[in-house]
Structure formats: structure tokens, C-alpha cells
Design brief:
Strand 2 and strand 3 form a beta hairpin. The longest helix has 19 residues, at 3-21. This protein has an 18-stranded antiparallel barrel. The chain has helices at residues 3-21, 90-93; strands at residues 30-44, 54-70, 75-88, 100-112, 116-123, 154-164, 167-175, 182-192, 195-204, 219-230, 232-243, 250-262, 268-279, 293-305, 309-318, 323-333, 338-349, 372-380. It contains 2 helices and 18 strands. The two termini are 28 Å apart. The radius of gyration is 22 Å and the shape is globular.
Length: 381
């Protein structure tokens, strides 16, 4: 392990000591300890000969959360959670993931008066109706088809005002870490005729937040989502981006989704989403194949079997280049806190001779879309 990795690990363990000891430093803290340990390894098919065959990871996440102060009207809540991750195998060798990483997962303080909340620090800012595709996921870093998909969160300030029990307004500021600017947004949600309806407006300057999509583009972003149920669940989520250039070119992303639970066994849940993204000529083109319009379909099924087993299958298909992924997973509850996952990924291209699809690529180097089969063990405490 190099000096940089040692420094990261040292800082992380110091952070964990503070997580555990901080509630003891001030009388009156209400706290609880939470965490998880993860071990996983996957065999990678058709990996380049110079790389390892198994892609493995180990993760330890620990933190405390609770109430720091209680007044007659206001209360101060907090969460301080950090994790350290060690990765070995082709994803680390190809630098798709860092070999060692330690950072805060959540670290925030929240002032809460019931119908008004102010939160500052590293927090989850994630909303929208989409399940597989999420145009309004401005700060979404989840791998939605992963074993346990969670977003890392963003460093910023967020305030929420509940106007009524079923409607609220929310605003946020996230430092862009470039030219002292901020990502600034405002959204509102309410119920209309039993439908959840939301609208959002955000100014996105150029940033140094490289984990976020479109981090180096200046845009004004507008969007909406609706979600309801009439026997079959349905939702729609869309976003319009106006890039700050002379011609103000546009990009439009939209998702249409439905789901239904069939009365088979303990309930067979089926979900499907259609995703479209298109941009005008002049809008910054990020697709490596140079295509301005992309259409994909996402499909998932899941079902519990007894009380200990649940299976699910994700399928993703690109209508433009005919590439696909199928991601099956079986969850087994060993105990109330210990879970074993058998998971895999199979990718391919329907077009004859196609090797460079968005969802599956056959290249001389490791690219992260290869077919895999693996086991992951997660213990919560």
C-alpha cells in the first residue's frame, strides 16, 4: 500500500473515532450507531490477459446519527458516517475505480421545526419519479443495477418548507468548487387528484465536481415529474437543459414508466421504463459514438420466495445500437442483518458484428461492461 493510501486510511480511522466518541463529548446527545461491512468478488469473463480474472471489493461503513439538541420549537439533528473501500482486480488495474478510497458518506446537521428544515453538509439530494432512468437526478451517483444502489450525496445546503401536509418547497446550494460559484436549485411538490406532481428549476455553472454528469457545462435546467396509480402504477419525468452558449442549444431527456404487481406466489412485481435523450446541434456532445438522440428501454422483475429469498432481474436495451445488458440477482437473508447476494451480468449486441454498443463493448482494454458472475456478503450492524 502506497503512502497516499496510508494517509487516506489514517484519516478515515481518525474520522471513525470521532464518529463513535462525539456523542459522548456533549451531555444530552441522543445517538445511535449504524454501519455495514461488505465483501464481494466477481469473476469477469473475457478479461484482457494482462489483468486479473476476479474483481473484488471490501467496504466498511460506520457512523452515528441522532438528536444533538431539543428546544421548544427547534431541534438539531445530525449524521456523521464514513466509509473506506479497498478494490482489487481489473476495475482497479484499469483505473475505473480507485484501489483505496476513504471519505464521508453522510455528514450533515439539520435544524428542524416540523414544517421547516435547514440541512447543511454532505447529504442525499435525490428526487424524481424515475426508477431505472432519472433525468431529475442532478446529484445521483447510484449504480441502479448494483447489489445495493446508493447515491454518495453532495456537499451543500438545503432548506425545505412544508406548506401543507402534502406539498412543499425546497431549495439548495451546492458549491461548484470552480470560480467560487454555486449550483442553485428550487423545486416544489404537491398532490393533484391523487397524483404526485413536482417541478424543478436549477442553474448549473461549470464545476469541478467530476463525479456528476455534465460537470463542466453551464446550463439552466427545468423539469417536472408526475406519478400516480390506477391499478397500474405510472410516472413521467422530463428535463430540458439550456446550454449557456451564443445559440442557447437545447437538450431534452424524458422517461415514461409503468409497473404492476401480479398475484403470483408472494407477488411478482414487473416494471418497465422508456428513456429518450435528444439534443440540438451545437449542444455539447458527450456520446462517444457522436449520436445526438439515444433511446433505451429498462425492464425489471422481482419476487420474494418465502421469507428468506428474493430474486430480481434487470434488463437494459439500447434501441439505437442494439446493445443490451441482463443483470440477475438472488438475495438470501442469512439472518436479520446478514445478506448474501448471488449476482451476474450478461451483455451483448444484437446487430451482427457490433462490438461497440453503449451497454456492452468488446474492447482490448477493460471497460466495465463485461459479463460477470459474483457473490457479495453484506452485514448491517
Amino acid at each position: 500500500m502506497n503512502a497516499t493510501s496510508n494517509l487516506i486510511l489514517t484519516r478515515f480511522w481518525l474520522m471513525l473515532v470521532l464518529c463513535v466518541s462525539a456523542p459522548q463529548l456533549a451531555e444530552g446527545f441522543d445517538s445511535r450507531f449504524e454501519g455495514r461491512a461488505l465483501l464481494g468478488s466477481s469473476y469477469v469473463f473475457e478479461v484482457p490477459s494482462e489483468l486479473k480474472d476476479f474483481d473484488s471489493e471490501a467496504e466498511l461503513r460506520m457512523g452515528v446519527l441522532g438528536n444533538a439538541w431539543q428546544g421548544e420549537v427547534w431541534q438539531l439533528d445530525y449524521e456523521l458516517t464514513g466509509d473506506v473501500r479497498q478494490v482489487d482486480g481489473p476495475s482497479a488495474q484499469s483505473r475505473l475505480r480507485p484501489e483505496t478510497n476513504a471519505e464521508f458518506f453522510r455528514a450533515w446537521l439539520r435544524l428542524d421545526s416540523g414544517n421547516f428544515k435547514i440541512r447543511g453538509g454532505r447529504q442525499k439530494i435525490l428526487f424524481g419519479a424515475g426508477t431505472i432512468y432519472r433525468p431529475l437526478g442532478f446529484f445521483d451517483t447510484r449504480n441502479v443495477t448494483g447489489v445495493v444502489p446508493l447515491t454518495r450525496g453532495a456537499d451543500g445546503f438545503r432548506s425545505t418548507w412544508f406548506v401543507t401536509p402534502s406539498s412543499f418547497l425546497e431549495g439548495w446550494l451546492v458549491p461548484a468548487k470552480k470560480n467560487s460559484s454555486f449550483i442553485a436549485g428550487l423545486r416544489g411538490e404537491t398532490l393533484i387528484a391523487d397524483m404526485e406532481v413536482g417541478v424543478v428549476l436549477q442553474y448549473h455553472p461549470r464545476t469541478d465536481l467530476k463525479d456528476l454528469a455534465d460537470f463542466d457545462q453551464e446550463m439552466v435546467q427545468l423539469g417536472y415529474h408526475i406519478k400516480g396509480e390506477m391499478e397500474i402504477g405510472y410516472w413521467s419525468e422530463s428535463r430540458l437543459d439550456i446550454e449557456m452558449q451564443t445559440s442557447s442549444p437545447l437538450r431534452f431527456d424524458t422517461v415514461l414508466g409503468v409497473d404492476y404487481t401480479f398475484d403470483l406466489g408472494s407477488g411478482l412485481h414487473v416494471l418497465m421504463e422508456y428513456f429518450l435523450t435528444t439534443r440540438e446541434k451545437g449542444f455539447t456532445l458527450t456520446d462517444p459514438k457522436g449520436q445526438r438522440t439515444i433511446q433505451q428501454i429498462g425492464f425489471s422483475m422481482d419476487q420474494p420466495v418465502g421469507i428468506d429469498i428474493r430474486w430480481q432481474v434487470f434488463s437494459l436495451y439500447d434501441l439505437r445500437d442494439k446493445s443490451f445488458q441482463v443483470i440477475p440477482q438472488i438475495e438470501y437473508s442469512v439472518t436479520d442483518t446478514l445478506f448474501l447476494y448471488l449476482h451476474g451480468r450478461v451483455g451483448g449486441n444484437i446487430k451482427e458484428g457490433k462490438k461497440d454498443g453503449r451497454l456492452h463493448r468488446r474492447t482490448a482494454t477493460f471497460n466495465g461492461t463485461e459479463s460477470i458472475v459474483g457473490l457479495t456478503l453484506i452485514n448491517y450492524f
